[in-house]
Structures are given as C-alpha cells and as structure tokens.
Automatic annotation (TrEMBL):
<dbReference type="GO" id="GO:0003899">
    <property type="term" value="F:DNA-directed RNA polymerase activity"/>
</dbReference>
<dbReference type="GO" id="GO:0005524">
    <property type="term" value="F:ATP binding"/>
</dbReference>
<dbReference type="Pfam" id="PF03796">
    <property type="entry name" value="DnaB_C"/>
</dbReference>
<dbReference type="Pfam" id="PF13155">
    <property type="entry name" value="Toprim_2"/>
</dbReference>
<dbReference type="GO" id="GO:0008270">
    <property type="term" value="F:zinc ion binding"/>
</dbReference>
<dbReference type="Pfam" id="PF01807">
    <property type="entry name" value="Zn_ribbon_DnaG"/>
</dbReference>
<dbReference type="InterPro" id="IPR002694">
    <property type="entry name" value="Znf_CHC2"/>
</dbReference>
<dbReference type="InterPro" id="IPR034154">
    <property type="entry name" value="TOPRIM_DnaG/twinkle"/>
</dbReference>
<dbReference type="InterPro" id="IPR027032">
    <property type="entry name" value="Twinkle-like"/>
</dbReference>
<dbReference type="InterPro" id="IPR036977">
    <property type="entry name" value="DNA_primase_Znf_CHC2"/>
</dbReference>
<keyword id="KW-0378">Hydrolase</keyword>
<dbReference type="GO" id="GO:0003697">
    <property type="term" value="F:single-stranded DNA binding"/>
</dbReference>
<dbReference type="InterPro" id="IPR027417">
    <property type="entry name" value="P-loop_NTPase"/>
</dbReference>
<dbReference type="GO" id="GO:0043139">
    <property type="term" value="F:5'-3' DNA helicase activity"/>
</dbReference>
<keyword id="KW-0547">Nucleotide-binding</keyword>
<dbReference type="InterPro" id="IPR007694">
    <property type="entry name" value="DNA_helicase_DnaB-like_C"/>
</dbReference>
<keyword id="KW-0548">Nucleotidyltransferase</keyword>
Length: 607
C-alpha cells in the first residue's frame, strides 16, 4: 500500500484535516486564503481529483503528505504511519518495503473443559486448577491425541491457538494454520510495569501464580521469532524481561530478543531449567525474588563482563553456496563486512544472485538494495536461477520478435510461497537514498530488529555516492564505516557490491589481475573490509573456465586464493566439480508437515 493508495483511502477527509490544522476558513465559494504566499483575497480551493488544496494564484498545492511533512514537521515515513494509524489498517513490512495488508484466519476449534487427568498433570508441576482457569486453558482432541489448548486473545478476539499433548514427559505440539502468532496472555498485561516473556506456557503460568501478573509466553518455543513482528506495536515502549530456558536454544533465543527489541533484560536460572522448575523446587517466593532482582539490577547501558555469554569462533556463519570459497574462509561471519567488486558484465550479478538463492534455501533472511537493476529484473533473474534448466517448469510464449521460455505462473506462485518473508528489497521509490543515508540505515535497522534479517547486500550504492558527493573518498569511507558500525555486535553480515576504479584486461598465470587497491573510492575502504572478493571473466586462453572468483582478503588468513568456474546460460549459474550447475531447491520439495500446516515444537529435557 503506497502513498497514493493511502491518500485515496483517506479521501475527502484530508480537506478538513488540512483546513483545521492550518485554520483555513472557506468563504461561500469554498475558497480559502493560501498559506503559501501573502494572499489578500482567497485564491485556494479544494481539488477533488488530486485530493489537495491548490492555489490559483501561486500554483502551490497542499495534499495530506505536504501538510504533515511541511507544516507538522514529520518525516515522510512518520506521515505515512500517521495515515495508517488513522485509517486503522492492519499492516506488516514485506519484501518490497511497502506497507501492505496481511490477512490471518481466526481459529476454529472445538474445545471442552479440562479433564481431571489434565488438571492432575499440571498439578505435578505445582500449577493449580485456578491458575489454569485464569489463563483460559481448555482441552481438545488433535491428531487423535488429547491436548491442552492455549488460547491467544487480543482486544477480546481469539487470534491464535496452540496445542500440547497431555502427557507426563515428551510431547508433540502445534498450532492452527494461518492464524496470527501473538504472545500468550496479552489480555491481562498492565501498561507501565516491566513485562516478563517466558519461553513456554507453563513457565508463564508459574510466574503468574507466584504473584507477578505482567507475564506472557511466546507462541512456539525458542526457534520461532514471528511474534516480534505480529506484536511489534504492542511491544513498543515496554521494559522487557526475558526468562529463557537455561539451555543452548534458550540462550540463543534470549540473545535474539535482546538484539531486536529495546530495553531487554534476561533471566537464566543458574542450575534450573526454567521458571516452572524454580516454582516446583523452591516455591513462589523464589520466583518473585529472581524477577525483582532482575528488574532492579544494573541500569541498561552498563554490563558486567563476567555475566556476558562467551561466543566461540566456531559459531555458525553464512554460506555463500560456493563450496571451495566457503571451505577456504570458513563461511561469512556475523558482525563482518564483505566487498565484492568487478567490471560491468563480468559476473557480479550472477555471483550475488547465486548467493541469495543459496541463502533462501538455508533460510537466511536477506535484504537487497540494487542501484542498477529494476525490481522486476532482480526477481526474474533470481527465479530463473531457482527454476534452472527444468523444461517442465517453463512454457513457451510468442513475443513480437521470437518465442521465449517463461516460468509457469503456478511455479512462480510456488516459489513466492517458499521464500515469503525471507527476501526484502529496499523500495527505491521511497526517495533518493544517496541523499538520506540516515533513512537508509533506519530501514536496515527495522529489517534486522523486526524481521530478523541476517544478510544485507548493498549493490552499487557507493557509485550513487560517487555521483552525489562533493568529497567522494570521504563520503564513501564514511559510508563503509557506517556499515561496519551497523553490524558491530549484531548477528548480521553486510556485503557491498562495488566497481573497480581501473579497467584492466589481462589475466596473468590464470589469476585475476584486480587488486584490493583497485576498489573505487578511498584507499581506506579495503582496510575496513573483513573480506574482499574480485569477480572477473576469463578473456584469455585456454577457455577451460569462464569466470574466476578471487579472495583478495579474509580474516581467517591473509593468503590470496582464486577459484575457477564455468557459466551455464541455461541455469544462469557458475559451476564446477563441487558447486553444481543444476540444483533442486526447497520450493520443489514441500514436506508433509508444511502440507498439513502443523508446527512441531522442540522437545526439551524438562518437558
């Protein structure tokens, strides 16, 4: 939903909002004095077709966005959010970075009161029948099993439902397909008090029963962070305490929440797994003591190094999908900056697109800014790589000049469903980014915080800086430093795609001749990068390879290393003996769980 659509939805209401805000008093003819010039006689009237006030004397105009940005001193984004709030549109941030409506289904499930067996099983955890009733826990039959039903209400509406088998140890769990995954217990939270977020429903009830009422649970365990998006507005401005399970998934979960939300403190019980186990072993007083100590601990902005998690270098990085390169550098690390550069037409686009395809397969959420290719071209190139050389997915279309292979519409739909929520484009129609880097980094921050984007690819923005900057070297160096600052202490990696500042045509001894110092811009730029990759075409003989990818710099070791690839015009991919020409991506292999829409939760020792 763009600015034009929002204006059309607001319609003639804009006339009165602007008139009231600027104290414009229409005469009998509906004319007002123009506030854009020294208007002695009313010369401005409402222009219905353009949804704006327009002056017949100075030819100035004021629409709803002009009013908020010029007279109320809002940014364009703030003005758009103001209209969205005014119109009551339910919105999410999607691939195009536009505001679009997201539809969720409401749960439809037959429920019954809890059986004595279900009540007794919770009593073993020292959770009372009264607590279960206060949290609206019911019972049902799901996939042939007796299950607890956890109901997720917001503003009096049942939005989401999750299940948990009624069993002493070990369980299967799931949720209703296409319902909105919000936090459990939002209906009884008070504003102004710190909010405790637990990893499981029994933990939330344990905290509540112990006397601390401002508590909710995430819907689907430690691995699913979708609730941050769906509850984004509700979470804003709250002081948050995360009580995570004291295991590896719980620790990772707490770290992700800390990175994506503000004012977050974390509770990890020293020897016990979670809040329910603290209640079970030590009683409600201990649960309250732990929460109160955490709320009153050292202010945010300071931290005791002894309480920091020690991150080992062996943590999982981001694969590019180019086997030899990944093995050599041991994957791209979080918190680092990579520069990919090469001449026009020598393979940068193919190389980057192939990396994006691999990241989508590995479920690495990716952000892309492209200063050269249109959104349509990006999508078409990527989808053709994902389809490959499979004729069954193509159809022949006759154009004015020839017959072309096009991807079948049903295949495009499958691919979109497969990667939905994983690839985000920066919407260049939002303004000239090179003139507003603050806005650009704000959008990246939103993508990381709200949607968990981990890989940021910025293609050709430095060239736009070159066109705009009075001092090119200084401006580009500052931009690269801002990229480094952005990923510092984040589970994220930035890739800058750049051009060389020289045109060289020779290849010597099978090695590409581009050097680190050939990157366009300041000589300080290569020093700031953690990895530098040159992409070059083989123009010489023998023609036993088409492209050479050279690692000119990486943090693991300083040795220069080159990798040779052939190019397949059928699949639009680079390949060799290890990096395959043809690959089957996940969009072609829906699992049974995905088909059924069942979300299986992770088993933990306490459960």
């Amino acid at each position: 939903m763009d600015a034009k659509e929002l204006k059309e939805m607001l319609g003639v209401r804009a006339r009165d909002i602007i008139a009231d805000g600027l104290r414009l008093t229409p005469n009998r003819s509906g004319m007002v004095k123009c506030p854009l010039h020294d208007d002695k006689n009313p010369s401005m009237s409402w222009f219905k077709d353009g949804l704006m006030w327009r002056c017949h004397a100075c030819h100035g105009k004021i629409d709803i966005f002009d009013y908020y940005t010029k007279f109320e001193h809002m940014t364009f984004a703030e003005a758009r959010e103001k209209l969205i709030e005014m119109l009551g549109v339910n919105t999410v941030f999607e691939k195009s970075n536009r505001v679009t409506k997201k539809e969720y289904a409401l749960p439809k499930i037959e429920m019954r009161e809890l059986s004595q067996e279900a009540i007794d099983l919770m009593a073993v955890r020292k959770l009372t029948k009264e607590t279960l009733a206060s949290w609206k826990v019911k019972e049902s039959t799901w996939n042939g099993s007796k299950v607890y039903v956890y109901q997720y209400f917001h503003n009096g509406i049942l939005k989401h439902v999750t299940y948990r088998e009624v069993k002493p140890k070990g369980f299967k769990g799931g949720c209703e397909k296409n319902t909105e995954p919000i936090l459990w217990g939002m209906w009884h939270v008070e504003d102004g008090k710190p909010l405790v977020i637990t990893e499981g429903q029994p933990d939330a009830m344990a905290v509540w029963q112990s006397g601390y009422k401002n508590v909710v649970s995430v819907p689907s365990g430690a691995s699913n962070m979708t609730w941050i998006d769906t509850c984004w507005d509700w979470l804003q401005g709250r002081e948050i305490v995360v009580w995570a399970d004291n295991d590896k998934p719980g620790i990772d979960f707490a770290e992700k929440v800390k990175q994506r939300l503000k004012d977050v403190k974390v509770i990890l019980s020293d020897t016990l797994k979670d809040a329910n186990e603290v209640l079970y072993r030590y009683g409600p007083e201990k649960v309250l003591e732990i929460i109160e100590n955490k709320i009153n601990e050292m202010p945010l902005g300071l931290k005791d190094v002894a309480h920091m998690e020690y991150k080992r270098s062996a943590s999982a990085g981001i694969e590019t999908g180019f086997y030899e390169y990944d093995s050599y550098v041991e994957d791209w690390k979080d918190g680092e900056l990579t520069i990919i550069f090469g001449r026009n037409g020598e393979g940068k686009t193919t190389f980057v697109s192939q990396i994006i395809s691999h990241c989508l397969e590995k479920k690495v959420k990716t952000f892309l800014y492209s200063g050269e290719m249109s959104d349509y071209k990006i999508q078409d190139w990527l989808y053709r790589q994902l389809v490959g050389n499979k004729k069954e997915h193509m159809l022949q279309v006759r154009t004015k000049y020839r017959i072309k292979d096009e991807i079948k519409p049903e295949v495009v739909k499958q691919i979109k469903q497969w990667h939905e929520g994983s690839l985000f484009l920066f919407d260049r129609s939002e303004g000239k980014v090179a003139n507003d880097l603050d806005k650009f980094f704000d959008v990246m921050e939103l993508a990381f915080n709200r949607f968990g984007v981990r890989l940021f690819i910025i293609d050709n923005l430095m060239s736009r800086l070159e066109e705009k900057a009075e001092s090119l070297n200084s401006d580009q160096a500052n931009f690269v430093q801002r990229c480094k600052d952005f990923v510092n202490n984040k589970d994220a990696h930035i890739v800058l795609v750049a051009h060389p500042n020289k045109e060289k045509r020779e290849i010597t001894n099978g090695q590409g001749n581009l050097e680190k110092t050939d990157i366009s811009g300041s000589n300080n730029i290569p020093n700031k990068a953690d990895n530098i990759i040159a992409v070059e075409r083989n123009w010489g003989e023998p023609r036993d390879f088409d492209c050479i990818i050279t690692s000119l710099k990486n943090r693991e070791n300083g040795e220069r290393k080159a990798f040779k690839y052939l190019f397949s015009p059928k699949t639009l991919r680079f390949y060799n003996n290890h990096t395959r020409e043809e690959i089957k991506f996940g969009w072609e292999e829906p699992t049974r769980i995905e088909q059924l829409g069942i979300e299986v939760k992770e088993k933990t020792p306490w459960d």
